[in-house]
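The pair is set out directly below:
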Amino acid sequence: MSARERPLDLQAGSVTLRMGLHEVQVLLGVELVGHLRFRALGSANSDEAPLYRLQEIQLNDAVAAHRDEIIQQATDLFAQYTGARVIGLKRPPV
């Protein structure tokens, strides 16, 4: 497996997290069952580490029960691969 991918064993089966352009794809076998998208905040020309916000999460029912673990592992993969800092979803006011 390359540095762009991370295996994740869940009760639903073996999932692969794969880096895309500003996203991490969630694959169950060869089937795409979800993705997490990240949005860049600030300039890429800064001397500081890039900053991204987790903007969107879409997971099929097949892996939805493992949402928290997938989010954590996908965010870690994205941060490690890009060298970025990642902040969570922006919560709407209640």
In short: The longest helix spans residues 67-82. The CA atoms of residues 38 and 54 lie 5 Å apart. The mean pLDDT is 89. The beta strands are 5-10, 13-20, 23-28, 31-41, 51-59, 85-87.
